[in-house]
Specification:
Layout: E1 5-8, H1 13-24, E2 29-33, E3 46-49, H2 60-63, E4 68-71, H3 84-105, E5 109-113, E6 127-128, H4 139-153, E7 158-163, E8 165-167, H5 173-182, E9 196-197, E10 199-201, H6 202-214, E11 221-225, E12 231-232, H7 233-243, H8 256-264, H9 268-275, E13 279-280, H10 283-288, H11 296-307
Parallel strand pairs: 1-2, 1-4, 2-3, 4-5, 5-7, 6-13, 7-11, 8-10
Antiparallel strand pairs: 9-12
Helix pairs in contact: 1-6, 3-4, 5-7, 7-11, 8-9
Length: 309
C-alpha cells in the first residue's frame, strides 16, 4: 500500500508510534486525534481533529482521499466501575460506524486493533491460538469481540489484530508499574512470579500493522500478536534493572502472601496478570511473513535505559 492511511487514536501510546513507523515506511498518514495541538507528529503528517466516540460522527470528510484505515481509537485500559454501555458505545458501536463509512467510501484496507482480551481473560490454560474459541471475561473484551464482528461483517478487506500486553517507551498499566518497581533501589520479592506471559514490543506491533496493510495474505484474517518468546515477571524486572545497570536483587516469597492484599484492594486483575499465565502463539502471523524482533528481554532493558535518560 502506498496511498494515504488514516490512523485513529493517533496521539495514543500505540498510535503515535505507528504514525512514525508508517512515515518511515514511506506511507502518507492522516492522523485523527481529539487533541491535535497536544502531540508532535513527524513532518508531512496531516492532522485532523475528531470528537470522542460517545456520539455518532460523520467520517466521510475524514476518509476523503484515504486508501487504508488503522482503527486504534477507543478505551485503552480496563477501568473499574466504568459503565458497560460506555465500552459498547466507544469500542463496539463507534467501530461499526467507522467500518460502515469505510465500506461506503471504498476504502481498500481496514486494520482493526483488537486485543487478546477479546479471546481470553487475564490468564489462560495452555497456549492460545486463533483457532481457540473466544471467551472474554469482562466488558472490555466483550466490547472488542463485538467490534471485531462488526468489522468482519463489513464489505471491506479487513484484518483484525489481537495484541497481548504492549511494552515500549511511555507504556502504561502493569508494565509501567513494574518499571517503577525496577527503578527502586530495594530488593524485590518477585522471584516466585515464574508464570509465563506473552508481551509484544511497540516496534513489533507497529511493524505488524504495516505488514497487515501491505500483505494481501492478511486480508480477512485474525491474528494474535506477541513476541515469539514468553517471559516471566521475574525476568521482566531483571531485564529492566539490567537496562538501568543494576543487579536483579529479587528474592522469593510465597505467592499467597500477595494474592489476598491485591484482591482486597480491588486489584484482582493485576494479581492474575502477575501470577497467572497468558501465552499466545504468534505463529500464524509469522508464517504469513511478519518478522518480529525476538529479543524481548533485550528490548525491555533498552526501554528501561531510555527511560532513565
Amino acid at each position: 500500500m502506498s496511498g494515504r492511511v488514516l490512523v485513529t487514536g493517533a496521539s495514543g501510546f500505540v498510535g503515535h508510534a505507528l504514525v512514525r513507523t508508517l512515515v518511515s515506511a514511506g506511507i502518507p498518514v492522516r492522523a485523527a486525534t481529539r487533541t491535535p495541538s497536544a502531540t508532535a507528529f513527524p513532518g508531512g503528517v496531516e492532522v485532523v481533529a475528531v470528537p470522542d466516540h460517545m456520539q455518532p460522527f460523520d467520517w466521510a470528510p475524514v476518509l476523503d482521499g484515504v486508501e487504508g484505515v488503522v482503527h486504534l481509537a477507543g478505551i485503552a485500559h480496563i477501568g473499574p466501575g466504568t459503565d458497560p454501555a460506555v465500552y459498547d458505545r466507544v469500542i463496539h458501536a463507534a467501530t461499526a460506524e467507522l467500518v460502515a463509512a469505510c465500506s461506503r467510501a471504498g476504502i481498500k484496507r481496514f486494520v482493526f486493533m483488537s486485543s487478546v482480551r477479546a479471546q481470553s481473560g487475564a490468564c489462560a490454560d495452555g497456549v492460545l491460538t486463533e483457532t481457540d474459541p473466544p471467551h472474554p471475561t469482562e466488558v472490555y473484551g466483550r466490547a472488542k469481540l463485538a467490534a471485531e464482528a462488526a468489522v468482519k461483517a463489513a464489505d471491506i478487506a479487513w484484518t483484525v489484530l489481537r495484541p497481548v500486553m504492549v511494552y515500549g517507551p511511555g507504556a502504561k498499566g502493569n508494565i509501567a508499574r513494574l518499571q517503577r518497581l525496577a527503578e527502586t533501589p530495594w530488593p524485590l520479592p518477585l522471584a516466585s512470579f515464574t508464570a509465563h506471559r506473552s508481551l509484544v514490543s511497540l516496534d513489533n506491533l507497529t511493524r505488524a500493522v504495516v505488514f497487515a496493510l501491505r500483505a494481501g495474505v492478511t486480508e480477512r484474517q485474525t491474528y494474535l500478536v506477541g513476541d515469539p518468546k514468553p517471559v516471566t515477571v521475574a525476568e521482566i524486572v531483571a531485564a529492566l534493572r539490567e537496562g538501568l545497570g543494576r543487579p536483579p536483587r529479587l528474592f522469593a516469597v510465597p505467592l499467597p502472601l500477595f494474592e489476598l492484599p491485591l484482591k482486597l484492594l480491588g486489584l484482582g486483575d493485576m494479581w492474575e496478570r502477575l501470577a497467572g499465565s497468558l501465552v499466545v502463539d504468534p505463529g500464524k502471523l509469522i508464517a504469513a511473513g511478519w518478522r518480529p524482533d525476538a529479543d524481548t528481554l533485550g528490548a525491555l532493558a533498552r526501554m528501561a535505559a531510555a527511560h532513565s535518560h
